[in-house]
């Protein structure tokens, strides 16, 4: 998987989790303040789309995850 896919998975997971924790009708409701985290994720996605800067992508790159522009990995089949 690429950094772009990881960012989308992380963002979707955090949005769903914060909605589940912040909406009063949810069985796992904790506080309405979790909706602020949903807004934070949305704002971060918006700014990364405009500026092409994403802190999570930098972390993933440091951990060795390849980016979308890195191309497919080659498998060495030398016997």
Structure description:
This protein is mainly alpha-helical and 79 residues long. The protein has one domain (3-67). Helix content is 58%, strand content 0%. It has helices at residues 3-22, 34-51, 55-62. It is elongated, with a radius of gyration of 17 Å. The chain starts with a helix and ends in a 17-residue tail after the last helix.
The secondary-structure element order is HHH
The rough form would be described as elongated
Number of DSSP E strands: 0
| Amount of beta strand | under 5%
Largest sheet: none
Question: pLDDT below 50 for ≥5 consecutive residues: which ranges?
Answer: none
Total domain units: 1
Question: Terminal Cα separation, in Å?
Answer: 27 Å
Helix content: 55-70%
Q: Helix- and strand-based class?
A: mainly alpha
**Gyration radius, in Å:** 17 Å
- Count of individual helical segments: 3
What average pLDDT do the residues reach?
Answer: 91
In short:
By secondary structure, the chain is mainly α. The chain has three helices and no strands. The model has no long low-confidence stretch (mean pLDDT 91).
Describe how the helices and strands are arranged.
Blueprint: H1 3-22, H2 34-51, H3 55-62
What tags apply to this protein structure?
single chain; 79 residues; mainly alpha; 3 helices; elongated
């Amino acid at each position: 998987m690429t950094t772009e896919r990881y960012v989308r998975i992380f963002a979707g997971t955090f949005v769903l989790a914060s909605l589940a924790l912040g909406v009063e009708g949810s069985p796992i409701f904790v506080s309405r303040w979790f909706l602020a985290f949903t807004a934070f994720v949305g704002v971060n996605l918006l700014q990364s789309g405009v500026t092409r800067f994403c802190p999570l992508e930098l972390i993933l790159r440091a951990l060795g995850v390849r980016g979308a522009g890195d191309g497919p990995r080659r498998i060495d089949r030398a016997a």
